[in-house]
Specification:
Layout: H1 2-29, E1 39-42, E2 50-52, E3 60-63, H2 67-76, H3 78-86, H4 90-105, E4 120-122, H5 132-137, H6 150-158, E5 163-165, H7 174-192, E6 197-202, H8 204-216, E7 222-228, H9 237-242, H10 253-263, H11 271-275, H12 279-298, H13 302-306, H14 313-320, H15 327-340, H16 344-353, E8 357-364, E9 366-367, E10 375-376, H17 382-386, E11 389-390, E12 418-419, E13 429-433, H18 444-455, E14 471-473, E15 481-485, E16 492-494, E17 499-506, E18 512-521, E19 525-528, E20 532-534, E21 539-546, E22 555-565, E23 572-581
Parallel strand pairs: 1-5, 1-6, 6-7, 7-8, 8-13, 13-14, 16-23
Antiparallel strand pairs: 2-3, 2-4, 9-10, 11-12, 15-17, 17-21, 18-20, 18-22, 19-21, 22-23
Helix pairs in contact: 2-4, 3-4, 4-12, 7-8
């Protein structure tokens, strides 16, 4: 009993230390001076609740889907689902999944012109009811994904009455949504008495801000704008989803499930769990849901065409849309692709000339959820988010590769998979290796960067702050273990240094990790330290000592092999890339 009490005391002491460290960190963050402008956040697709027959006795939530009818169908079709994954009876199992999907999509159907078939509205519509203060008072923060992280952080710094979330019917086209966004921005300025606002968009929300700049940029009341995980030019996933070639589908269930769990605040690697589910069954279900169910509904969703890459738009519009029947929808989508999305760089540069601080934050190194090694953040590929060049996740630029645009700066990522020199805004684009779609809200360092870009003018480009260089590594709690050279964000190794200090850290807030080995490739160094147990939030020193040998490349990778608990994986591995300078 005494031993048990000692263990409890030790654990409580550790918890208190962590709490104390957190308080110190919070106090330092609050020393930051933030601009006295209201903040407007525009979420991405699927992030808003949608209500049918709002304000009537028949009021029903249609998104997220009601749990009871979906659960009932799952139970009813459970035998078929099990046979699909255990006995490889793909067709029967897939039929059950399609039935479930039908109950989700049908209430969300739209007319041929892209308008809603049913009377559906977002949960909140006016600026007055969409402030942090109003959402909190109404008990609605829990249904606003953005509100649980960035929104609450921002509200603490500038006040809940100065922080707003624009909720919209995300099925509709960007042009229609932006008309309402313009009214929302004007109302926020009236409510707060300010002449400008700082704004941020998530995913498809970036497309809305892009269209806003295109329409209202000349008389815009924007100060800072942050494009977070933008789908500026759509996503290459569109091609896989809309294509009827089943062989193209290579669905990554672990990526999709991980994003769902992150939204619920759960950081856990599910790769081993999804490996038990038959891959052929997953691909069959995803393909059939798209071809037999989703395409009946989403082909008249304006948002779906909004994420169609510009170079594929004409091809697919001719397949799925009719010039007469869908004339109204085609009018806005043709404009969106041939005016707005065809001139992304020009629109962003024009905004900069209007003294708007424009910045892009996105991810690389995560395969798109549709598979095929497409490089991005799990949902949007590097090319569409940055305008630059992105190789697939299984390829690297050659040693003699020269970046696309010679502007005197190095815009090639340490992974040698991304070149931002030919991007929309090379000097104002941050690329984070391993960051999943909109993941920076879960990474406190990236969230700090997003907040500085959003609420200050301390950072004007990727060279303004050494803590936030153009290329960063994700330090999300889900990934558990990470390593930093000199404990900083700089992903650079000087091959002439005799000794380099590094820090290995357990980024998880609750899981334990045991580091088994650390290996380095590309430079002649040996690594000492860092092995053994890592408690949650714990750091250990690592030393890289120069040994005899030639420098093999301009790229170096450091791989940490570890075991984490609790986990569904027997062993875990984290590889990080660094640029080598001589």
């Amino acid at each position: 009993m005494k031993k048990f009490k000692r263990v409890v005391c030790i654990l409580l002491s550790i918890a208190l230390i962590f709490s104390f460290v957190s308080v110190i960190g919070y106090a330092r963050e609050n020393e930051e001076k933030y601009e006295d402008y209201p903040v407007i956040i525009v979420p991405g697709l699927l992030e808003n609740e949608l209500i049918k027959d709002k304000g009537t006795k028949n009021e029903t939530r249609v998104w997220p889907p009601q749990i009871s009818p979906v659960a009932s169908l799952i139970l009813k079709n459970f035998p078929a689902l099990m046979r699909g994954t255990t006995k490889k009876e793909y067709e029967k199992g897939s039929e059950a999944v399609v039935k479930i999907a039908e109950t989700i999509f049908e209430p969300l159907k739209t007319n041929d012109d892209g308008s809603s078939y049913y009377d559906i509205k977002p949960l909140t519509e006016t600026a007055e009811e969409s402030s942090y203060t109003a959402l909190k008072k109404a008990g609605l923060l829990s249904v606003t994904p953005t509100g649980r992280k960035l929104l609450s952080d921002v509200a603490e710094k500038i006040g809940g009455d100065n922080c707003f979330v624009f909720q919209y019917d995300w099925r509709l086209d960007a042009v229609t949504c932006v008309e309402k966004l313009k009214t929302f921005v004007d109302d926020v300025l009236k409510i707060t008495g300010k002449d400008k606002a700082n704004v941020i968009g998530n995913s498809y929300g970036c497309e809305l801000w892009l269209e806003y700049l295109n329409e209202y940029g000349n008389n815009s009341h924007l100060n800072n704008i942050v494009f977070n995980s933008p789908a500026f030019a759509g996503s290459e996933m569109f091609n896989i989803i809309m294509n009827d070639d089943e062989s193209l589908m290579d669905a990554k269930a672990e990526i999709a499930l991980d994003m769902i769990l992150r939204d619920k605040g759960i950081d856990l690697d599910l790769e081993d769990i999804t490996s038990f589910i038959d891959k052929g069954f997953i691909n069959k279900c995803v393909y059939d849901v798209i071809q037999k169910c989703a395409l009946k509904y989403v082909t008249t969703w304006g948002c779906v065409w909004g994420v169609c890459p510009t170079d594929l738009y004409d091809e697919y519009r001719n397949i799925y849309l009719d010039d007469n029947k869908n004339a109204a929808l085609l009018k806005v989508e043709d404009y969106m692709h041939k005016d707005t999305m065809a001139n992304i760089s020009e629109i962003l540069i024009k905004a900069q000339k209007k003294s708007i601080n424009v910045n892009i934050l996105t991810g690389e190194g995560v395969e798109l959820a549709t598979g095929n090694h497409m490089n991005g953040d799990g949902l949007v590929d590097v090319k569409c988010s940055t305008g630059g060049t992105g190789l697939s996740t299984d390829k690297f630029f050659d040693e003699d590769y020269v970046q696309a645009v010679q502007d005197g700066h190095d815009h090639i990522s340490p992974s040698r998979q991304t070149d931002v020199s030919n991007g929309y805004l090379p000097e104002n684009t941050w690329v984070v290796y391993g960051m999943e779609h909109c993941q920076e809200y879960d990474d406190k360092d990236l969230r700090k960067l997003a907040e500085k870009l959003l609420m200050t003018r301390d950072i004007t480009d990727v060279y303004s702050d050494e803590n936030y260089p153009q290329f960063l590594e994700s330090h999300n709690p889900k990934d558990c273990v990470s390593l930093r050279i000199d404990g900083s964000a700089q992903s650079v190794i000087d091959s002439n240094s005799k000794e380099i200090k590094a820090v290995i850290k357990n980024d998880s807030l609750w899981r334990f990790a045991t580091v088994k080995s650390i290996t380095i490739n590309g430079v002649p160094y040996e690594i000492t330290g860092g092995k053994g147990l890592l408690l949650p939030n714990m750091k250990k020193s690592v030393t890289l000592k120069r040994i005899e040998g030639d420098v093999e490349s301009t790229q170096c990778s450091i791989t940490v092999n570890y075991v984490e608990f609790p986990s569904f994986k027997a062993n875990s591995e984290r590889t990080q890339y660094f640029k080598v300078v001589k």
